[in-house]
Amino acid sequence: MSYIDPLYFVFLTAGITVGFGHCIGMCGPILVSLSLKIRKKGTLYPHVLYHSGRIITYTALGGIMGATGSFTLIAAHIAWLQKIILTGSGLLVMVMGLSMIGRTPWGNRFKETFPSGGIITKGFRKFFDGTSSPAYFPMGLLLGLLPCGPVYTALLAAAGSGMNAGSIQAGIIRGMGIMACFGMGTLPSLFLVAKLADMGWLKKRETIYRIGGFLMIVVGFYFIVKGIRY
Amino acid sequence: MLPSMILKPPLFFRGMTFRLKSRGISALECILICCIFSPVLINAEEQMIPCNVHTEACIFSSAGRMITLEITPRPVKAMQELQFKLTIIGSQIHKLPFIDLGMPGMTMGPNRILLTPGAAGTYEGKGVIVRCPSGRKTWFAKVTLPEIWDIRFVFDVVY
User: Do residue A148 and residue B32 have CB atoms under 8 angstroms apart?
Assistant: First the structure.
């Protein structure tokens, strides 16, 4: 009979409760911003990609914690990176918001530097316009590194379980398992936010895009301030 | 009277249900939204004992038993390994105590410190208080003496 670590269930449940009690408040604004940016209403595909990226990042971090068995050591090493990501994601969300209301900064300079039909221009346009669903996957990978209290708590458990595992391999697997379960547990609440922000019932879509754009600018600014002060 | 009310809700509620459905929000989603706020309401009713962990131990006494909780090193900082020492004076306990760390009014996930017995009446364990990017610094340590007490010491940490 195979053995399943009870910590997996504990952190799957923790993910669900944390999702409704914490993530909606802290990550909700990002998800609402992303939801408003998706032009094809009613589709969950970009959200699936975004959350897949986020869970992969969590799982990778869990593997590292499980391998080393030390939370404080890794947390201290990635603190500077998280500060950059918090600030950078704020900038990213802000630029996306500006592009949504048709005021992309450095637009003219960008056009002068890179040819309009080039790969770089097309890539950047797709990414910032949010019309390309695959762009949500790297976004999820990146934003999975955002500093977050409950994620730290789950990583703490991943490190602890790695420390108690018999080998490094076992530690990696247990750490990854805990973080993957935790990430999956947060899905119901975050999909609910995405569904509520879908605004499929609204007839004047352009109005909501504008509101969404301004919302993204505010959220981006908030993240930049948090990043600087972190 | 009662069954008819259940089968046929008052007009106001029927109207509300219709309006919500027309906006793509189901009753299930409304229930889930209510669930989001329920932990906050539950936490608001719990008693908490404030203390300054940077300068002193947290103390609670009742019914001939006194417990003290010391957290070191001081000042108590987030994201570093901390030593938790619990001392019980008075009638002894039969099951091992443990400490749960969390934030008042905020779900932070399970962060339990299992304590091991030391010298007479003392229990020790190691743990980490994580950092919340919201900037809030108030944490609690819920000390559980199984089948006896649940005490929450509330304190501020340094980021």
Answer: no
